[in-house]
Design a protein that fits this description.
The structure is a single chain. This protein is mainly alpha-helical and 398 residues long. 37% of the residues lie in helices and 7% in strands. The chain contains twelve helices and nine strands. It has a three-stranded antiparallel sheet with strand order 6-8-7. The protein has a two-stranded antiparallel ribbon with strand order 1-2. The chain has a two-stranded antiparallel ribbon with strand order 3-4. A hairpin with a 3-residue loop joins β7 and β8.
Length: 398
């Protein structure tokens, strides 16, 4: 194990090492002398101790030597220098020939691969078939003309992996360069700048950078529309905003109505029958409507589906001539009994009518035509009070 003393010049030399003492005071003294903190597994080489502090003994035959320290021995102070720079005297050579090298120009064809962007002539609006190239001067003039033209460098390279298709459909890839659809490739004098980029490609560059930044911050990316599509988008957003406000008002109204209904239920639950009777008498409510109110309150307090109806209410239900009887009963608008329950009301089993003729025999004074209701029909006819009294002479009907 190597020595734990920093900048120890003997780390490359094979030597014996000794562990840190377990005594706390002696350990602190070692750390103070060596100028470093130690661990349980730290070792110090023998070069940091005096020769008299080390005991060496041999075991068996050969050169098997073992070393150990004397009791309560401290290491010696060693001046360890830190190397700041290594300055060496390099060998300098004197030139034998002081003549300068001559430059030789050789006329020959040199082929060099272009490192700039490749632009097709069709993109610039030029065609070699329309040009008259007859002499070398024509070729030189054509080259000078192309040299003076400022070409749009595009927005950015298409080789970037983080350019998604969601950045819009207004971009095209031309020779590994992303350009705007409306870019005309040639930059005019009034549009030329530091990068030789047209205004459309600048807008595309701005849009892509901001969308990349929004994606990096986990935000939604905006899509830029044309003026015509932007108007449609504004109309849709306006309709969405109006519908949202309408739904908000409806939700608020539903909450208010539900709160009011719960308050009325709580108030009716605390109201006694005597108070209800006083309210009905003070408002001059008819007897049939009073029976309806009592029946509604009674039905609201009974949770059993097999509830029993009062006689007066059953007789009133028999006198009903309502086409929407089943609708009122199915939607719990009124506590109406089932049609079969009305038919079975106070009829002996042997007197339950099975047809219209049987019912007419039970009601001989019936002037109007009566049709026996079934489970799929509603009451459309009216039974007179005299018929009910004839049918049920002991009725306490008022």
């Amino acid at each position: 194990m190597s020595c734990c003393v920093p900048f120890c010049p003997y780390k490359g030399i094979k030597s014996s090492t000794f562990s840190i003492p377990k005594n706390t005071s002696l350990k602190v003294e070692w750390e103070r002398i060596l100028g470093t903190s130690s661990k349980v597994s730290s070792r110090v080489c023998q070069n940091h101790f005096k020769h008299d502090d080390i005991n060496t003994w041999e075991c068996g035959q050969g050169d098997n030597k073992f070393t150990n320290l004397e009791f309560n021995v401290s290491p010696k102070y060693n001046k360890i220098t830190t190397v700041i720079s290594n300055i060496e005297n390099d060998h300098c050579c004197i030139a034998n020939n002081n003549k300068r090298l001559k430059r030789h120009n050789i006329d020959r064809n040199v082929f060099e691969e272009s490192s700039t962007k490749r632009i097709e002539m069709s993109e610039l609006g030029y065609s070699l078939s329309n040009m008259q190239i007859e002499t070398y001067e024509n070729i030189e003039g054509l080259i000078r003309t192309f040299d003076k033209i400022n070409i749009c460098q595009g927005s950015m390279s298409s080789n970037l992996s983080d350019i998604n298709l969601s950045y819009g459909h207004q971009k095209i890839e031309t020779f590994e360069v992303i350009k705007h659809l409306k870019c005309s490739t040639i930059v005019t004098d009034d549009e030329s700048g530091e990068r030789n980029v047209r205004i459309w490609c600048k807008c595309l560059d701005y849009s892509i950078k901001h969308k990349k930044l929004r994606e990096k911050n986990n935000k939604k990316t905006r899509i830029f529309f044309s003026s015509k599509k932007k108007k449609k988008l504004q109309l849709l957003n306006k309709a969405k905003h109006l519908l949202k406000k309408k739904c908000s008002r409806a939700t608020s109204r539903m909450v208010n109505l539900q709160t009011s209904l719960n308050n009325n239920k709580e108030e009716m639950r605390k109201m006694s029958e005597s108070k209800i009777e006083e309210l009905l008498k003070s408002n001059n409510i008819p007897q049939c409507q009073s029976d309806l109110i009592y029946e509604i309150l009674k039905a609201s307090k009974i949770k059993n589906c097999k509830q029993r109806y009062s006689d007066n209410w059953m007789l009133l239900c028999m006198l009903l001539q309502i086409s929407g009887y089943r609708f009122l009963r199915d939607n719990n608008i009124l506590p109406l009994p089932c049609i079969n329950t009305i038919i079975r009301f106070r009829f002996p089993k042997f007197l339950i009518p099975k047809s219209d003729s049987d019912l007419r025999t039970l009601i001989p004074n019936s002037d109007s035509e009566f049709r026996l209701p079934n489970s799929d029909s509603e009451f459309r006819n009216q039974i007179t009070i005299s018929d009910i009294r004839t049918l049920i002479p002991n009725s306490e009907f008022r």
